[in-house]
Amino acid sequence: MIIVITIVAYFLVLLGLSWLTSKGASNEKFFKANRKSPWYMVAFGMIGASISGVTFVSVPGMVLNNNMSYLQMCLGFVLGYVVIAYVLLPIYYKLNLTSIYTYLEDRLGKYSYKTSASFFILSKMSSAAVKFYVVCMILQRFVLDQYHIPFFVTVSVLVLLIWLYTRKGGICTLVYTDSFQTLCMFIALLLIIYKVMGALDLSFIDTIHRITNDYHSQIFVFDDWLSGQNFWKQFLSGVFIVIVMTGLDQDMMQKNLTCKDLRSAQKDMCSYGLAFVPANLLFLSLGILLMFFYAQLHLIIPTATSDELMLKATAGGLLGTPVVVFFTIGIVAACFSSADSALTSLTTSYCVDIKNRADDEKLRKWVHFIMALCFIVFILLFRWANSTNLLDAIYTLVSYTYGPLLGFFAFGLFTKRVVNDKFSPFIAIASPLLCFFLDVSITNFTSYKFGYELLMLNGILTFLGLLSFSKNTRK
């Protein structure tokens, strides 16, 4: 019951922030926050929105099988954010875009524009559903099952709560609620680490020594080119994942486009990009500390799924009731901050890109509600189909669904050729299918195993497809 009370209190705070920030709400405020957001608020809130509840659950457990090699990808993230700040943001601000996919209509044509927006809606709906599934799963497993509440009721109530506090202010509300949620998330993370240190009777210096001297603190892998943890695979995948999941993603860019000018947006982008390495270092360090904790209690470390390392120690109550509360606050803050922005950006993309009716407030309200219902359906579908680590599930989805976006934008930015626009939808569908075929075939017939570099392969195939159906121009 303490988890339910915590979530109710947390939601009431969000509802209060929504009420304060949604006064005089309009479509301009819902979509752009009137371009008046302080860059430092956007940057801080974006950390929580980018990390999500999946990081809270999955990243600590990654040390079981991959040590701290995930930080190699985080280093790639930093370079990716710099590319976005100085390559993509100047274009978006110069064109004064509400939806970033409008750029593709001017550069490639209507079919490319609509196809890209459609792929974003599919991609964001599915990946956001995976992220939000985390908090629903934890509530169901550790609290609501004992009251015989069906899972679909849990999902429906939580999604409708998000719809309720975002339905008026939209992106303007999210700039402030996400900052609050990021603060809650980091306070919860630090308190959990502090409690684990206390359970192990370790000082701050002792904790650093124990972590750095442990085998699982290994970060870099240079010697095995076939491994999915090889540095260059991880680093380059990190660069392209950030460019696609942030720079080519309406959800993430919509908040950045609420800053008053380009320089503010660039400061925001670089600031929260740099925060990724220390933030994920904390999560991975917590994973090593939890391994020590399990050993101290003579408990078997969960190996069936790496997510269990965090779940059993925190939500499972091994560290006591205070940690259950901290974990609940952290996981709900992280999940809500990613789901609420996804719901808002999906509404924006459908109204602006698909229907071309950015000024229709009645349409926006209906679309916002319908997107919430679709969100519920996608979460239920993922619960039925999921069989992998949650973070891997997201990056696998991204590799197949965001690859065409990477190809479209790369073609538009780095060539001056005119594409035969009517073929764009077929190319965007064929590229992920060909990627899947190559992945299965190469895995079956060789020792090579594709990792997150599938995203780059998918983007290259889309680029080559567009190149094949294009012609030179002097314009």
Automatic annotation (TrEMBL):
Swiss-Prot/TrEMBL GO biological process terms: sodium ion transport
Entry keywords, A to Z: Cell membrane, Ion transport, Membrane, Sodium, Sodium transport, Transmembrane, Transmembrane helix, Transport
Main localization category: membrane
Record organism: Prevotella bivia DSM 20514
Family: Belongs to the sodium:solute symporter (SSF) (TC 2.A.21) family.
Annotated GO CC locations: plasma membrane
Tagged with keyword Transport: yes
Gene3D superfamilies referenced in this protein's UniProt entry, alphabetically: Sodium/glucose cotransporter
Transmembrane portions of the chain: 40-63, 70-93, 147-166, 173-194, 231-248, 269-295, 315-336, 366-385, 397-414, 426-444, 450-469
Identification of the protein by name: Na+/proline symporter
Molecular function terms from GO: symporter activity
Tagged with keyword Hydrolase: no
PROSITE patterns named among the record's database cross-references: NA_SOLUT_SYMP_3
Protein topology in the membrane: Multi-pass membrane protein
Localization per Swiss-Prot or TrEMBL: Cell membrane
